[in-house]
Amino acid sequence: MHRGLFVVLEGGEGAGKSTLARTLATRLEAAGHTVVATREPGGTAAGERVRELLSLPLTPWAEAFAFLAARAQIVAEVIRPALERGSVVISDRFAASTFAYQGYGRGLDLDLLRAANAAATGGLEPDITLLLSVPAAVGLARQARHDDRVLTGAEALAFHTRVHAGYAALMGEAAAGQHWQVLDATRPEGEVASEAFLAVNHALSAGRGA
In CATH, which superfamily holds the domain spanning 5-205? Predict the structure, then answer.
């Protein structure tokens, strides 16, 4: 059996990742694929408890390790088994969120974060990362309509501007073989979903997860 495809949706607050994850899963299932959708932090019993913890004020490193604990659990419990079964895994956030938020946003050392993340994930990397790009101020205005207890989402505009710049830097630094695609998330949801579906379909056709 071929390994499945690991798709990660990234972006700042209010970019539309959760909506896209649902739409993309529906379209892929209609095309005959088995899909497993996950989110960070969460997706497992332990991960949901970590999500509750992240509603409390934590030091930057405590916050980073909380995210990594949830990620280690979901990789072992959900993501790797699903990939081994040949499923398409769609994750609403993964490692790049840690680098953008805790690295660029909080100012933590990126090399240390990368080493800690590699330990937590066993070196697992996405087959394709779709970066939903929206100006930080626009995303925060959208996010204000939702109730999310994770405190990183409630930070001031300056923090989210650093996160937005961090995502751009991460994409620019991506090594060969790390497939990133930027989606303009200021467009209507249907247009974004269609472009995302085409990108994932292309990755599947290319056997990127095999």
Answer: P-loop containing nucleotide triphosphate hydrolases (3.40.50.300)
